[in-house]
Specification:
- The structure is a single chain.
- This protein has about 170 residues and is of the alpha/beta class.
- Helix content is about 40%, strand content about 20%.
- It has 5 helices and 7 strands, in the order H-E-E-E-E-H-E-E-E-H-H-H.
- The strands form 2 sheets. A 4-stranded mixed β-sheet has the order 1-2-4-3. A 3-stranded mixed β-sheet has the order 5-7-6, covered by helices on one side.
- Strand 1 and strand 2 form a beta hairpin.
- The longest helix has 27 residues.
Amino acid sequence: LLDKLDQLPPRTPFRDGAVIPVQGDDIVVRHAPGTTRTARFENGALLVGGGDDHLARRVRDWLKREARRTITPLAWEKAGIIGRKPDRISIRDQRSRWGSCSRTGGLSFNWRLILAPPPVLDYVVAHEAAHLREMNHSAAFWSVVDEMTAHAKTGKQWLKTNGARLHAYG
């Protein structure tokens, strides 16, 4: 157990000066206490207003909004490729999953996918949307995934190698 804990990547808290990856680009978190109490992306930095005690939450909220803004239309697009419609699309903070598809067609995605490069996010969205047709991991399922993305193999490998790093942010 201690060996496994030692293998975990070091934590990167959301604080002033932190560098976080967003869709393949590194951005710097800058505390801007004199500005509005929100977070906004400007000139390659994420400017976070308000008190320092709320900075981490505001960064996380901004990342969740970016995840929703990016993933929702992509999920609709992927589902459309196979002539399906998701029942709903939700963004969550799962600890052990990048996404899921319910029996009723609800798609759920981990907000931390916004920290991954675009091909990885594309793969996960395609993977979950493919479950709208095939609720298994059969050869037919993987054929549907391959129909929706060219990034299945590389996305899956990237998550296996780097996925734990995404959970170290925040």
